Amino acid sequence: MSTNPFTPEEQQRIVNSIRKAEKATSGEIRVHVEPHCPAPDPVQRAIEVFAQLGMDQTKQQNGVLFYLAHADRKFAIIGDKGINTKVAPNFWESTKTLLRSYFSAGHYAEGLVQGILQAGQQLQQYFPYDGATDTNELPNDISFQ
Q1: What is the DSSP code (8-state) at residue 55?
Q2: CA 45, 50, 55 angle in degrees (round to 5)?
Q3: Contact, 123 vs 83, CB < 8 A?
Q4: pTM of the predicted model, to two decimals?
Q5: pLDDT tens column, 48-89
Q6: Burial track 7-16 (b if 16+ CB lie within 10 A, e otherwise)
Q7: Which three-class secondary structure state does DSSP give residue 80?
Q8: Is the dihedral of CA 43, 118, 1, 142 positive or negative?
Q9: Measured between alpha carbons, how far is residue 114 from residues 6, 52, 94 in Å?
Q10: Where is the TPM domain (predicted)?
Q11: Torsion over CA: 52, 119, 70, 93 (sign)
């Protein structure tokens, strides 16, 4: 399987969902996709990718990474320190459950779209969008490895 399991249309829907989610929050959302997870635990790999993508450099430390190893059927959602200090420990559980329901049926693109939109709504409570000072600090495109 290639490193990109998505059609161009699916990729565009995912990027559009990132843009839409970020309109409601100052949080920064990225998606990283690769076929295999080189670490034993997808959360461990997501932490590495988070740093590689420079997601730990946002002003409010409010980056969120959706990590997907599609061939291995593994995924993780992680947030930066700014998020983790404000939210409950199980903050991402409902989003993970939502993703799992789509992924188990093989609907990876739709799962990411729905998960990203839900994450944006959740982040809005803690990191509302501020049109006066908010800038898009990270690209909205999907990164592949």
Answers
A1: G
A2: 175
A3: yes
A4: 0.91
A5: 999 999 999 888 899 999 999 999 999 999 999 998 888 887
A6: eeebbebbbe
A7: coil
A8: negative
A9: 15, 25, 11
A10: 5-121
A11: positive
Contact 1, 36 (CB under 8 A): no
- Hey, what are 136's tokens? 């898009």
Record the tokens describing residue 64, joined without a space: 């969120």
Domain boundaries in the chain? 8-124
Hey, what amino acid is at 39? Answer: A
Contact 143, 33 (CB under 8 A): yes
27-36, 43-52, 122-131, 134-143: least confident range: 134-143
Q: What tokens appear for 145 in the block?
A: 């490895």
| Class of residue 138 by CB neighbours under 10 A (exposed 0-12, middle 13-18, buried 19+) | middle
Q: Which residues contact 86 (CB under 8 A, 6 or more apart)?
A: 126
Name the residue with tokens 């693109």.
109
Alpha-carbon distance 78 to 65, whole Å? 5
Residues present in the chain in total = 145
**End-to-end alpha-carbon separation of the chain, Å?**
12
